Amino acid sequence: QRQLNGATIAEPAPYRDIQGLEHFDKVIDIDQSPIGRTPRSNPATYTGVFTPVRELFAGVPESRARGYTPGRFSFNVRGGRCEACQGDGVIKVEMHFLPDIYVPCDQCKGKRYNRETLEIKYKGKTIHEVLD
Q1: Looking at domain 2-131, what is its CATH homologous superfamily?
Q2: Scanning 48, 69, 117, 122, which has the fewest C-beta atoms within 10 Å of its C-beta?
Q3: CA atoms within 13 A on the CB side of 86
Q4: pLDDT(38) > 70
């Protein structure tokens, strides 16, 4: 692997060509790491795409039957988030004289949502799977 502008460049996939590549001027590899002014922001919240995703999950028939609103699918407020980690997906372990470490939440296994919220699926995927 090589690096360009701090990004890792993986080996090319086993394809002969890509059609439509002329429509792209660059590709940026991103993950769900926090960005912006708050540690809870991520690419989905930062770009505004998270709101329609939450609305989509709130519109699923099972969601409507349970009375879930888009807020249920936010990991920033009570209701749908895992309360053990408050929607962070990790638990901070203070190491006193060493840097703190973060371990995956035992309750949600790093998925950030409670069990009831993760029971709602859109096209076979939970909100965690869509955001991951």
Answers
A1: ABC transporter ATPase  like domain (1.20.1580.10)
A2: 48
A3: 4
A4: no
State how far the alpha carbon of 29 is from the alpha carbons of 5, 9, 74, 87, in Å: 12, 9, 24, 24
Amino acid at 92: K
Q: pLDDT band at residue 9, thresholds of 50, 70 and 90?
A: low
Q: Domain locations in the chain?
A: 2-131
Residues whose CB falls within 8 Å of the CB of residue 69, separated by 6 or more in sequence, listed in order: 58
Rounded Cα–Cα distance for residues 57 and 68 (Å): 9
Tokens representing 115 are 């069990």
| R_g of the chain, CA atoms, integer Å | 18
pTM of the model: 0.69
Question: CA of 61: how far to CAs of 10, 66, 79, 83, 93, in Å?
Answer: 41, 9, 18, 25, 39
CB atoms within 10 A of CB 84: 13
Element at 32 (helix H, strand E): none
Number of residues that this document lists for the chain: 132
Q: What number of other Cβ atoms are within 10 A of residue 106's Cβ? A: 11
